[in-house]
Amino acid sequence: MVKIRNIELGEFPLLLAPMEDVSDPPFRALCKQNGADLMYTEFISSEGLIRDAVKSVQKLDIYEYERPIGIQIFGYDIESMKKATEITEKTNPDIIDINYGCPVKKVACKGAGAGILQDIPKMVKMTSEIVKSTKLPVTVKTRLGWDDNTKYIVDVAERLQDVGIEAISIHGRTRKQMYKGEADWSLIAEIKNNPRMRIPVFGNGDVDTPEKAVEYRNRYGVDGIMIGRASIGYPWIFNEIKHFMNTGNHLAKPMIKDRVDVAMKHLEMSVKWKGETLAIAEMKRHYTNYFKGIAHFKEHRTKLVTSFDLNEIKDTLNFIAENADEFQVVI
What global pTM score does this model have? Predict the structure, then answer.
C-alpha cells in the first residue's frame, strides 16, 4: 500500500498532474470518476494568494468527492510561500504540493517553478520552511534539473526528503527541454532505488497508453505514475491503465455517445464554475482528444474548436450524439 503519511493511495496509484487551465474542479471530477487516485489542483501563485487575486483564490476551490486532493502552490519568495501555505491550509486540502517543475518562461525566469533548479540551496531552504509552516503533508513536483549539465535530482530528492517532504513526483525532462524529446526515467529509477529514500517516488512524462504504464512500472520500479497531457480530453485513461494492469486486457474505448456525454458534462460544469467565456476558450484543447481517432470527423471538430457560441457548441455535440452510428472510432 502506497501512503503519503496516513493517506492510503492503493497498491500502485495513478495521479492527475497539476496542469494550468486543465486540472480545474470540472475536469478533476471527471478524472476522479474514471479512476484517478490522487489529484492536484492547477498551480496557484503565492503572490496571487497574498494579494487575494480572484483567479488565484478561485483555484483553492476543492470538494469532498475529490479527496484525497492536493493544492499546488508556486513562487520565488520564501516568506510569500510560507504565507501562501498558511492561506492554503485553511481550505483544508489533504496535501500541499510545491511546484518546482513549471518550465514556462514567465514562471521559471522569475526563479519560481523549474527556475529554482538553478539554486538548489534555496530550493531546500524554501521546502524546509514550508514543511515547518503547516501540519499537512508536503509533496514536491519537479524536473531532472535546469539543463543537461545540472541533473542533480538524485541528490536533490534525498535532501528534500531530509527536510520533511512526504512524496516526490518527477517529470523526466529538464527545464530546457520543456516538453520536447523523450522523458528520461532512468534518474527517476535511480532515486527510487536509492536505499536512503523512504518516501513514495512518482514518475511523470510520456505515459500515454496502458502498455507504457505497465512497462514503466516494471522497468523503473516507481511507486505510482502521474498522468498529465494524456488525460487532457481523455479522463478514461486512468481506468484503462488500471484495467490493463489488473487483467492484461484492454477496456473497450468509449463509444461516440460516451464521449459526447462526458464532453457535454465537462462543458456545463466548466460554464458553471468559471463562466461562459473562459469555459468555452479552455474547453477547446479538450475537444481534440475527446474525439481523437474518429474517422470523417474533421468538420465537427473544427466547429467545436472555432465556435465561441455556447448554444452552437451544444448543438454540434448533440448532432454528433444523434448521428453516432455514422462515426467510427479507429484508434
Answer: 0.94
